[in-house]
Amino acid sequence: MSLFKKFFSSEKKETLDKGLEKSKSSFFSRLSKAVVGKSRVDDEVLDDLEEVLVTSDVGVETTLKIIERIEARVARDKYVGTDQLDSILREEIAGLLAETHHGEATEFEVPRVDGPYVIMVVGVNGVGKTTTIGKLAHQFSKQGKKVVLGAADTFRAAAIDQLQVWADRVGVPLVKQKMGSDPASVAFDTLSAALKQHADVVLIDTAGRLHNKVNLMNELTKVKRVMQKVVPDAPHEVLLVLDGSTGQNAFEQARQFTKATEVTSLAVTKLDGTAKGGVVIGISDQFRIPVKYIGVGEGIEDLQVFNKLEFVDSFFNRSR
Questions:
Q1: C-alpha dihedral over 229, 125, 302, 266, to 10 degrees?
Q2: 144 marked ligand binding residue
């Protein structure tokens, strides 16, 4: 039986296929050039494949792992035709991602905890952090969960205003203070309000300035410490939002944030407008942190729960 069972609804799958179109066409045009005139996968084809993967923003370390897996397969099977390369890539990359992603979520869900489930959202400005929070609030609300938002990115008036727009759109309460307030104080107020309102999920936005990692680390540590005065286990999740269209820059941001705080999950946004979709594979593999959500369009429904098999199937299926 194929690994690639269908988990998604056809509508979600269509959105995913469309969202990855640029990445896919760029990848396959490079791959076609690499194997033109070749009938079997040999060292030369593997060298060319390595270059295709690296230039598709999969990242050097992950690319080398993929090449090693394919080399082992070629050695075992003695002969592998270039016509099999697409399906081999799908299988080997799915196998690699399976090492980071255990089990497959298909819906927006949060674990049951005593009190509200608190998600602290981190990431640099401009990556789609506020939009991701808004879309998550929409998905959780749609399930009948009571959601509260906290505007703890107090360094940008635009961040607070943007979050207010999303709160109004989704119909959920937003806890905020004036610009320049102490972010930890906003987090404290948000969790206090969430307890009073018997909220199920709390999403806390935080400042995304990376110019000084020590400051960032101190601020996030303080926000966490103050949250724990209200909800002892908070935050239950630290979600790092990365802009997929920045390619290798997303790797660097992941490196900085994972040093500054304990990141437990990732969201990769803006995949629909870029040919750099391979970054999802590399980031997922290198940081050993599960990619939980991907953004494949601007619509409110275009944030999807990341499913490795569906992603790899869409990315490496040339027929679509």
A1: -60
A2: no
Report if residue 284 sits inside a domain.
Answer: yes
**pTM confidence score:** 0.91
196 marked as binding residue:
no
User: pLDDT of 214-255, one tens digit each?
Assistant: 788 888 999 999 999 999 999 999 999 999 999 889 998 999
Which tokens hold the place of 236? Answer: 């239950």
Task: Answer yes or no: is 69 a known binding residue.
Answer: no
Q: 137 and 37, same structural domain?
A: no
Residue 16 to residue 241: CA distance in whole angstroms: 18
Chain segment 206-221, per-residue pLDDT in tens: 987 765 667 888 889 9
Q: In terms of residues, how long is the chain?
A: 320
Does residue 274 have a known ligand-binding role?
Answer: no
Mean pLDDT (the chain, rounded): 89
Q: Please, what's the largest Cα pairwise distance for the chain?
A: 68
Q: If you ran DSSP here, which 8-state letter would residue 81 be given?
A: B
d(C-alpha 59, C-alpha 218), whole Å: 30
- Name the residue range of residue 243's domain: 117-309
